[in-house]
C-alpha cells in the first residue's frame, strides 16, 4: 500500500475492466470444455495485471493478445487453475496494447467425475455467482497510453461498447453471424437479426450493434 505525499499529484490514471463470458453452458460429464471471450481496445493502452476467476470446475486459463496485424501472443497462462489459489498476476514488464488489439481469455473446465472438486458432474452448468455454477471472469488493470491526471479521456465507454461483440464473435472477425448467437443476448437478437443487419451482409458489425444499444437506452 502506497500513499502519495501531500505535495505530490499522481500523473497517471489507472483503470479496471473485465472480460466475461456470461453465455457459458458447460455440458454434463464433459472433461475438457473450453470457452472464451475477448475485449477489443479502441485506443493504445498499457496493461499491468490480470486476475483470473472461475469456480470448482475451472481447470486452466489463458490470456492472449491478438494484434491488428493478425499476430497472436500468449500473455499469461495458468495450466493448473486452482479455485483455492486465486491471485492477481502482475506482468514483469507492462504490456503495450496497440489500438485495435484484442485481449482474448480462454478457460478450460472439467465437469466430469474425474474432477474431485466437482459438485455435480451430471448437471449442465450455466454462468452464476454461486460456486456450484461457473464463471469466466478476468479482471484487468490498465491505463490509456495518452491519458494523464491533467488530461482525462473517455475511452472506457468505447471499450465497454465492444463487450457484446467480444462475447459472441467466436471466430474473431469483428462480426456476429446468426450461427454465433447464444445465451440471453443471442435470444434477444435472433428475432430481429434480419432487421438489425442494415447492410444485408448476413452479420452484425460494431455499428449495427451500437444502434441496438442506442435504441435500448432511448427506451429506458
Description:
The protein folds into two domains: 15-150, Jelly Rolls, CATH 2.60.120.230; 167-218, Recoverin, domain 1 (Orthogonal Bundle), CATH 1.10.238. It has five helices and twelve strands. A four-stranded antiparallel sheet has the order 1-10-4-7. It has a four-stranded antiparallel sheet with strand order 3-8-5-6. Strands 2-9 form a two-stranded antiparallel sheet. The protein has helices spanning 155-161, 163-168, 183-189, 193-196, 206-218, and strands at 15-20, 25-26, 33-40, 45-53, 58-66, 72-78, 88-97, 102-109, 125-126, 137-144, 176-177, 203-204. The protein is globular, with a radius of gyration of 19 Å. With 220 residues, it is an alpha+beta fold. A hairpin with a 5-residue loop joins strand 5 (58-66) and strand 6.
Mean pLDDT: 94
Give the amount of beta strand, in percent: 25-35%
Rg computed from alpha carbons, rounded to a whole number of angstroms:
19 Å
Architecture of the largest domain, according to CATH? Answer: Sandwich
CATH names the topology of the largest domain as Jelly Rolls
Question: In DSSP terms, counting alpha (H) and pi (I) runs of 4 or more, how many helices?
Answer: 5
Spatial strand order of the main sheet: 1-10-4-7
How much helix, percentage-wise, in residues? 10-25%
Instruction: Give the tally of β-strands.
Output: 12
State the order of secondary-structure elements, H for helix, E for strand. Answer: EEEEEEEEEEHHEHHEH
**So what's the overall shape?**
globular
Uncertain ranges: none
Distance between the termini: 41 Å
For the largest beta-sheet, the strand count, sense and barrel status come to: 4 strands, antiparallel
Category by helix and strand content: alpha+beta
CATH top-level class of the largest domain: Mainly Beta
How many structural domains does the protein architecture include? 2
Amino acid at each position: 500500500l502506497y500513499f502519495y505525499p501531500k505535495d505530490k499529484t499522481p500523473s497517471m490514471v489507472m483503470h479496471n475492466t473485465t472480460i466475461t463470458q456470461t453465455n457459458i453452458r458447460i455440458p454434463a460429464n464433459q472433461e475438457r470444455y473450453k470457452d472464451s471471450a475477448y475485449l477489443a481496445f479502441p485506443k493504445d493502452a498499457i496493461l499491468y495485471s490480470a486476475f483470473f476467476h472461475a469456480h470448482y470446475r475451472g481447470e486452466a486459463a489463458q490470456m492472449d493478445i491478438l494484434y491488428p496485424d493478425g499476430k497472436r501472443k500468449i500473455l499469461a497462462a495458468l495450466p493448473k487453475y486452482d479455485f483455492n489459489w486465486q491471485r492477481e498476476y502482475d506482468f514483469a514488464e507492462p504490456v503495450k496494447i496497440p489500438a485495435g488489439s484484442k485481449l482474448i481469455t480462454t478457460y478450460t473446465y472439467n465437469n466430469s467425475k474425474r474432477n474431485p472438486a466437482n459438485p455435480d458432474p451430471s448437471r449442465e452448468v450455466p454462468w452464476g455467482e454461486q460456486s456450484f455454477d461457473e464463471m469466466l471472469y478476468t479482471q484487468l488493470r490498465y491505463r490509456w497510453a495518452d491519458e494523464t491526471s491533467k488530461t482525462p479521456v473517455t475511452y472506457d465507454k468505447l471499450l465497454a461498447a465492444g463487450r457484446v461483440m467480444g462475447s459472441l464473435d467466436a471466430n474473431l472477425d469483428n462480426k456476429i453471424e446468426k450461427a454465433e448467437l447464444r445465451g440471453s443476448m443471442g435470444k434477444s437478437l435472433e428475432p430481429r437479426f434480419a432487421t438489425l443487419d442494415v447492410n444485408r451482409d448476413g452479420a452484425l458489425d460494431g455499428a449495427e450493434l451500437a444502434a441496438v444499444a442506442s435504441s435500448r437506452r432511448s427506451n429506458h
